[in-house]
Design goal:
This protein is an alpha/beta fold. It contains eleven helices and 16 strands. The strands form four sheets. An eight-stranded mixed β-sheet has the order 4-1-5-6-7-8-11-12. The chain has a four-stranded parallel β-sheet with strand order 13-14-15-16, with helices on both faces. Helix 5 runs parallel beside helix 10 and helix 7 runs parallel beside helix 8. The chain is globular and about 60 Å long. The chain starts with a helix and ends with a helix. 47% of the residues are buried.
């Protein structure tokens, strides 16, 4: 990629079986859904006066999980199809014209490049051929934020893409999946969701792909955006409330590389008494990039920093991120990034910094200044 092409890419306009539900929970939930449908007036602004067309792409996860006898609360992910999930939630047909496709049936701990590419291609194809007005992706919560961020950086267009999951399996007494799925469809069907990039909808909150992260291992109140908060809320009384305006500009989208795999980028976790071994090992294994999950402001020990400097001199992309939950990593404060040829992740956590690094490497962006522009594009 030439320098002019890099500049264009970084600043250009491109963007963006029946399910068993306990009877009492079902009755209560049906009542809530009825109120929500009336409050939201779904489909009112749909083109041609009809309901919006929403394509549901199922990947598995806890939201599609079924109970397992091995322990109390145990379950197996990805046992229920997307079609079955839709059929289990009353009132969805009043929100949109729905169609479901099964992309995978895995727990999101097993999410991989192949599934990411399949999702990205199917979404883009649906938009390019005008098959859908919005997309809903059902997904496990463990890597939901990475999938959302990846798609946010590769899908072109302004139609809504909403990713949803649950913390409790479909067979749990108080399963959160049905409510989350209902609200995800509600958001995807709302014309105000256009131009906002990929959104995550769980537990009555709408979160942006860049900021959303999982913050608790088991609580339904797990997803948050530590640096800038939710972009909106969904509730049964007031419908959808967006707290931010649609962005006036958007980050570039990046092409999918040939094949089914992104370049190898390793995350190295910093800790007390750290040596250079993890970094040296990443280099030996052919890493094209290394993301430091650093202490504090993306820092680490002198031996580790020396090894990262050596990696950068070999042409390996080095990105300083932080293991701290919130805050920005800033250039040249504790570390001389200009001298060492490092990139700082700004607000991106290590897992999202890794995704962006992979896309940049695959796009042939190698100049440190241009790499840094990509990481700071929305700030």
């Amino acid at each position: 990629m030439t320098s002019d092409a890099v500049t264009s890419a970084l600043h250009g306009p491109g963007r963006r079986s029946a399910l068993a539900i306990p009877l009492m929970a079902f009755v209560l939930w049906s009542g809530c859904i009825g109120a929500a449908a009336q409050a939201a007036e779904p489909g009112k602004d749909a083109s041609a006066g009809g309901l919006p067309r929403i394509l549901v792409l199922a990947t598995g996860g806890t939201i599609a999980g079924q109970a397992d006898a091995r322990a109390t609360g145990a379950y197996k992910s990805g046992q229920i199809t997307g079609e079955q999930l839709m059929q289990s939630v009353p009132g969805l047909d009043k929100l949109a014209k729905l169609n479901a496709e099964q992309i995978s049936s895995i727990g999101s701990q097993d999410m991989n490049d192949k599934v990411w590419f399949a999702l990205a291609r199917r979404i883009q194809d649906a938009f390019d051929k005008n098959e859908a007005d919005g997309i809903v992706i059902t997904h496990g919560t463990d890597t939901l934020e990475e999938t959302a961020f990846f798609l946010d950086n590769v899908v072109r267009g302004d139609k809504p893409v909403v990713i949803v999951g649950s913390m409790r399996p479909a067979t749990a007494v108080s399963a959160d999946g049905p409510g989350n799925l209902y609200e995800a469809v509600q958001v995807a069907a709302d014309p105000r969701s256009r131009g906002r990039g990929v959104l995550a909808v769980l537990n009555d909150k709408i979160q942006g792909a860049r900021s959303v992260t999982k913050t608790n291992t088991t609580s339904v109140e797990t997803f948050g955006s530590p640096n800038d908060g939710p972009v909106g809320y969904v509730d049964t009384a007031g419908g959808i409330r967006f707290m931010t305006q649609t962005a006036s500009f958007r980050r570039a989208t990046y092409p999918l590389p040939a094949g089914e795999q992104l370049p190898r980028v390793e995350i190295v976790y910093s800790h007390a008494n750290m040596d250079a071994v993890p970094i040296e090992d990443a280099i030996k294994r052919g890493a094209k990039g290394i993301v430091l999950a650093g202490v504090g402001d993306g820092n680490t020990s002198k031996p580790a920093l020396d090894a990262l400097e050596a990696a950068a001199r070999k042409g390996i992309m080095v990105v300083r991120s932080t293991r701290v939950r919130s805050g920005f990593v800033t250039r040249n404060v504790e570390v001389d990034d200009d001298k060492n040829g490092f990139v700082v992740s700004e607000d991106l956590n290590p897992q999202k910094a890794r995704v962006l690094a992979q896309l940049l490497i695959a796009s042939g962006v190698t100049v440190p200044a241009e790499l840094q522009k990509a990481f700071t594009a929305t700030w």
